[in-house]
Amino acid sequence: MKKYWKLFAAALFAGAALLSSCDNGTEAGEEPTVAIGKITADVTTANVAVTISNATEFYYAVVEASAGAPATEDYRNDVEASATSVSLTGLTADTDYKFYAYAENADQTSAVVSSDFSTLPEGTAPEYVEIAPNTELSGNITESSLLKADSEYTLSGGLHVKAGATLKIEEGVKIVAVDDETPDYILIEQGAKIDAQGTAQNPIVMTSQLDASGAWGGLHICGYAHTNAGAGTVSEIGNAPYGGDNDADNSGILRYIRLENTGFALDPEHEANGVSFYGVGNGTTVEYLQADNGSDDGFEFFGGSVNVRYMLVTNCTDDSFDWTEGWNGRGQFLVAYQDSEATLGAACDCLMECDNNGNDFAAEPVAHPILANLTLVGSGSDSQGIRLRAGTQAEIYNAIVTGKTKCITVETEETENALADGTSKLENIAMSSELVSEESIYTNDDFVAAAGNSTDYVNGLTDKFYGTLEGGATPSDSFFMQADYKGAISTDNDWMAGWTNR
Q1: What are the two backbone dihedrals, phi and then psi, of residue 66, each rounded to the nearest 5 degrees?
Q2: Chain centroid to CA 232: how far?
């Protein structure tokens, strides 16, 4: 949330003492200072390196260079005084800008400092700095960087891609997390991008030296799309902010990527998913991804509007797919598969765990993804197949759900009311058990009465999850490809061939 100056411009530019601010331990009499370092800009975003000292508050503004000094209301202080960089988004292509900044503590205000920069013309490709093969990746990427095709890299600790920079990963790249006690992960911050495009014949592989689930911390992407979790949201790993009001935000491209052995335990309550989508917008392209052998979720959506297609989760022992905080994207051709507890040594949780907001079931915007062509095969455990709860809405079409004693459960009044009044829809679903209703608002009778649903499906899939059933209908939304059948993958259209572990 923006916090604008409530001070007179004359006081600012004279460097006069300002209204008192919170005390974070800065000694009285110490003069606050700000220095602006390197500014890395692309077409519409930039990352500004800053050094701030002796300050409790930090203020900055960015204006077009031709506009002159910013007005007092143009300044904002949504960046902590401990920050080392500022991410700028929503800039205009091929434009000259000026960045202004100052800091304050309870006693003094620093001088205003400024620096010029320019965004790139529309359509300009970033100039990439090539990272040599066998390099150990760690720390911050502040300028667009390239991992060369068919090369191997190691990952040690957190790798943060900062605003204004793009991490380009070419086909056949293999990234291997080192075996140590440090959380190894890749995090794309707000205003940064990832361009990771493998091919079916030559995928990108992100894995670990230790061939075991939970060995590393996965991929995390933070965008400027919505979340209903309120202000100040930060990622579970890497402590990076996410969320905003730009549901069309573009964090890049993910295509033909296999992520193995994710789920590093940060503490007893937090483990890292295969890919975590934090407020990621629908300008981002996500398709042909596999999360394999993870000890937490395969793919989790924290708000946002990102759309996904051709997604496979195999043997991730928490939930295969998970959403919360108001995700409202689209998804098609989604597969989850869980081996038995005897095989894995662990009982898997839900195939899909689906929340609006666990702290406020009515939080807005309400989660309402639209999903079609799902094949979800459980481990035989007593946990749910699809668990709709905590106020979530959803439209799910053309699905096969099997291998769970409770293939679909619905919980909380908000979730069940949305199903009962038609806001949410479950249609053309074949599953192997009756629907379980916690509130008895939307019941198994309601489910069976809906178009194309059944509760007596006997698993007839081959090779774990291949096969479809007649009797589907493609949603009218333009995102969806024509696929008028139940299930995600047929034997005559093997979109998993070549790039997946099966």
Answers
A1: -75, -10
A2: 16
Residue 337 near residue 239, CB atoms below 8 Å = no
- CATH no. for residue 14? 2.60.40.10
Strand partners, 363: none
This prediction has a pTM of: 0.84
Whether omega before 365 lies within 30 degrees of 0, making that bond cis, reads yes
Number of domains in the chain: 3
Selection from 292, 166, 153 nearest residue 221 by Cα: 166
Residues 347, 367: Cα–Cα separation, whole Å: 28
For residues 222 and 158, membership in a common domain is answered with yes
Bin 263: left if φ > 0, else alpha if -120 < ψ < 50, else beta: left
Q: Of 125, 280, 264, nearest to 188 (Cα)?
A: 280
Name the one residue in this structure whose structure tokens are 């390239």: 146
Domain residues for 494? 342-502
Residue 178 sits in the same domain as residue 53: no
Cβ–Cβ < 8 Å for 201, 173: no
The answer to the question of residue 260 being in a domain is: yes
Distance, CA of 403 to CA of 400 (rounded, Å) = 10
Closest CA to 318 of 351, 278, 276, 275: 351
Pair 437, 501 in one domain: yes
Structure tokens at 239: 């402590």
Contact 372, 398 (CB under 8 A): yes
Q: How far apart are CA 234 and CA 222, in angstroms?
A: 9
CB burial of 75-106 (b: ≥16 within 10 Å; e: otherwise) equals: bbbebebeeebbbbbebeeebebbbbbbbbbb
- Distance separating alpha carbons of residues 502 and 499, to the nearest angstrom: 10
Please return the burial class of 7, using the count of CB atoms within 10 Å of its CB with bins 0-12, 13-18 and 19+: middle
Residue type, 444: N
For 362-409, the pLDDT digits (tens) are: 999 999 999 999 999 999 888 899 999 999 999 999 999 999 999 999
C-alpha 489/C-alpha 468 separation (Å) is 7
Where among 306, 333, 365 does a domain terminate? 306
Task: Give the list of residues 6+ apart from residue 230 with CB closer than 8 angstroms, or none.
Answer: none
Q: How far apart are CA 37 and CA 220, in angstroms?
A: 26
Per-residue model confidence as pLDDT tens digits over 258-285: 999 999 988 777 779 999 999 999 999 9
